[in-house]
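Below is how a single chain appears once it has passed through the pipeline. First comes the sequence as given, then the structure the pipeline wrote out for it. We keep one example in the README because the format questions we get most often are answered faster by looking than by reading.
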Amino acid sequence: AYIGCASLIGRRTPKGVVLEDDTAVANYLLNEGRVASVPGAAYGLSPYFRISTATGEEVLTEAIARINAAVAQVE
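Resulting structure:
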């Protein structure tokens, strides 16, 4: 699934890092949210990131909760 992240571009993480592109968003989600994703740029689809949905519902629910928590911390 591709998830749009245009609204995060240019915003700051709690550590003061500016999310300059979808690659920075994917890295932030990995490091702070502990969710693996692939920047849309890898597929020519910026500003999106991709997560795999080939897993159980419980894992996806946890991943979405982690993404939401990480995004809520961005200023």
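The chain has one domain: 2-72.

See the next section for the split statistics.
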